[in-house]
């Protein structure tokens, strides 16, 4: 999305970052779905729906903010990067 107005561009950027953060929040609360008082099938369905919604929200935000920025965010906060960071801290 190309915007000529700098204020509008700033609003798009804030909305895009908010969408990306919201997708990470959805992933962060997924493990707590096991505590819900529903059957296993219902919990599995809720978790699956949350995963799909989280991915859609992430990619909509990514399209709004730009591909390069989105890939940097995804790489920086991936599980592999976090695990490697924890391993490096233990070795020190």
Keywords:
single chain; 92 residues; mainly alpha; 0% strand
Question: Could you walk me through the main structural features you see in this protein, from its secondary elements to its overall organization?
Answer:
With 92 residues, the chain is mainly alpha-helical. The chain has one domain (6-91). Helices cover 79% and strands 0% of the residues. It is built from 4 helices and no strands. The chain has helices at 6-29, 40-65, 67-76, 79-91. Helix 1 runs antiparallel to helix 2 (40-65) and helix 2 (40-65) packs across helix 3 (67-76).
Indicate the overall shape: flat
Give the assembly state of these chains. single chain
Spatial gap, N to C terminus: 45 Å
Question: The biggest beta sheet, please?
Answer: none
The percent of residues in helical segments reads: over 70%
Classify the beta-strand content into a percent band: under 5%
**How many runs of DSSP E, i.e. beta strands?**
0
Total of domains: 1
Task: Output the structural class.
Answer: mainly alpha
Mean pLDDT over the residues? 85
Topology overview:
Layout: H1 6-29, H2 40-65, H3 67-76, H4 79-91
Provide a concise account of the structure shown.
The protein is an all-alpha fold. It has four helices and no strands.
